[in-house]
Design goal:
Shape: globular
Low-confidence stretches: none
Number of strands: 7
Helix content: 40-55%
Radius of gyration: 20 Å
Mean pLDDT: 93
Structural class: alpha/beta
Order of helices and strands: EHEHHHEHHEEEEHHHHHHHHHHH
């Protein structure tokens, strides 16, 4: 599905587009706190409609199946032509799920078990990200949690129909939030490069995203630089387009349990193991390579990442950890999480994402990481 993309430089065109919708036919999905803090509320009132009411905001930051049921019920109580989601990744994911699940013939649990049952009927969706990191505006999947277990609901129809990108909404974001969301984009892009599902197209998106993040995230976090935040918005969009093709790998596979059980924000959680798996994957050989294109092919892709970031292959972990620290992000699990239980993470590793890693990962590899 082709997406129509607007940026703040094309605000006039965006206003013309949105003027085609009656305000009473717009279903708005937001997070109430960030909606006000980011300036999104003023943007909606001044640009989209000055008498629109917030239709749905009652959901968990990590969307639960019960939240989705509530959203669907609220949606079905009205008569809407379009869904407008303005917020971070959780807001966009919830809106993406509502846009398709209100039109399905089967119950949620059945579809989660067999996603081939999803039909392509949907309510058109406009996604307006207020953070630069998740790339949810560019992906045809959405995260949903059921009893702390993460599900990735995937279907071509989930992809938002329209996108509006602007750095204005991230200017008031706390530095830690900017760091976490930016690191999510960073990890997505890097994982996309070495994923067994990578393609020429996904690698082009991913390499550009890595370059943008590496050179702009610190300025966005430390200096709240508007230009850096604009470039981070583009990086997040590109990283989203990359993983929409390739999907993520080992760092993401471990991250979900850190978020579910220890409440570590997603971008921070992914960064906890990125440096380890970066070095681990660089050490790939023909013996443990599961990418059909061979270990030399994988290593060449990772070496290009090192070139982009100007990192010596002998100092991968040290350099990346230093980068994370410069953003105020602690990746030392023993000091970050008191009474940490590694078995809890190991038991809840996302196997689907783990299988996308180019180098075989045994239980011993994960145990070595926690050591």
């Amino acid at each position: 599905m082709n997406q129509e993309i607007f940026r703040n430089s094309s605000l006039i065109e965006f206003k013309d587009f949105i003027s085609n919708y009656n305000s009473q036919k717009i279903f708005l999905v937001v997070d109430e706190y960030s909606y006000k803090l980011s300036g999104a509320e003023a943007f909606v009132e001044n640009t989209i409609c000055n008498n629109i009411s917030v239709a749905f905001s009652d959901f968990n930051p990590n969307p639960q199946i019960r939240d989705l049921r509530k959203g669907i019920a609220v949606f079905k109580n009205g008569d809407y032509d379009i869904i407008v989601a303005i917020g971070g990744g959780s807001v966009l994911d919830m809106a993406k799920l509502i846009s398709i699940f209100t039109h399905q013939d089967y119950n949620l649990e059945k579809i989660l078990r067999d996603q081939t049952l999803i039909n392509n009927t949907k309510t058109p969706l406009l996604a307006i990200p207020t953070t630069a990191g998740t790339g949810a505006e560019a992906t045809a999947f959405a995260v949903l949690y059921v009893d702390k277990v993460k599900y990735s609901v995937a279907a071509e129809s989930i992809l938002p129909n329209y996108i509006y990108l602007s750095p204005e909404f991230s200017l008031s974001a706390p530095s830690y939030l900017t760091a976490c969301t930016g690191l999510d984009a960073f990890c997505q892009a890097i994982e996309s490069v070495w994923s067994v599902n990578s393609t020429k197209e996904s690698k082009e998106y991913a390499y550009e995203a890595v370059d943008l993040v590496w050179n702009n995230l610190r300025k966005a976090v430390v200096n709240n630089d508007e230009n850096a935040k604009a470039l981070m918005q583009e990086a997040a969009f590109l990283a989203g387009k990359a993983i929409n093709i390739s999907k993520t790998t080992a760092p993401h596979a471990l991250s979900y349990a850190f978020t579910s059980y220890y409440h570590i924000p997603h971008g921070h959680a992914v960064s906890l193991s990125l440096a380890y798996f970066f070095e681990f994957n660089y050490g790939i050989s023909n013996i443990d390579c599961i990418d059909k294109r061979g270990s030399n092919y994988v290593k060449a892709r990772i070496y290009k990442l090192l070139e982009i970031m100007e990192i010596d292959s002998q100092n991968i972990q040290e350099t990346l950890v230093s980068f994370f620290n410069s953003l105020g992000v602690n990746t030392n699990i023993s000091t970050l999480i008191p009474n940490f239980n590694s078995d809890l993470i190991i038991r809840n590793v996302n196997i689907e994402r783990l299988k996308n890693n180019p180098r075989e990962i045994t239980p011993q590899v994960i145990t070595d990481f926690f050591r």
